[in-house]
């Protein structure tokens, strides 16, 4: 099978056989070019790449043995990495109320995957253990893929909203919602404006797994959506974006998208 046309995991398995693969080398070169020394900015970036998304979690990881980075140091670094370097993106909860906490993520998908798993996999590959390299990627794949697709789906729905292609013509902003406990987290929230909406028009779920969105997922979405400030369960719509479709038993969804719909929104 040609690596060019291989499914993603098969392609990665093949690349793990070669420690000099561009899969590992390109993001590492970018990282070294932008952040050549292991300073605080590099530690902050690596903390976010390893999965720390809140200000407090980033401070704890990037601070290391000396204790958490102080806000006076971390906040300017986060602004620089977000606004000047544009290597980080920041997401805030979308509802009719100002929300916290903000969540940080690596903006570039390739660099996010490298910091999340490929750098550790490359170390195994360099030791002559491609089996361990690929095993590490495979274990983390579902989680990495699910997180990576969330901003892409939100952006795609935002484009569809701008084009007037959603069932909610007043929707102009698409984000997500969470509270300080991250219980619940609602993948999709559509509103008339951001970051603080006047009206929440729909809430939704992203399911990027090998099984369809089913009645249990629907019950969880309805339960969680009811906690989004400004969402009216009686009047608000529901949206589902699912890699494996929606089970025939699921009813009452205002918008159902699959992978092809997400791609088509960019066209």
Write the layout of secondary structure elements.
Layout: H1 8-15, H2 22-34, H3 40-49, H4 55-63, H5 71-84, E1 88-91, E2 103-106, H6 109-126, H7 130-162, E3 173-178, E4 185-191, E5 200-207, H8 215-225, E6 237-242, E7 255-257, H9 259-265
Parallel strand pairs: 5-6, 6-7
Antiparallel strand pairs: 1-2, 3-4, 4-5
Provide structural commentary.
The protein is α/β, with parallel strands linked by helices and 267 residues long. The chain folds into 2 domains: 3-88 and 108-140, no CATH class; 146-265, Trna Endonuclease, Chain: A, domain 1, CATH 3.40.1350. 46% of the residues lie in helices and 14% in strands. It contains 9 helices and 7 strands. The chain has helices at residues 8-15, 22-34, 40-49, 55-63, 71-84, 109-126, 130-162, 215-225, 259-265; strands spanning 88-91, 103-106, 173-178, 185-191, 200-207, 237-242, 255-257. The radius of gyration is 20 Å and the shape is globular.
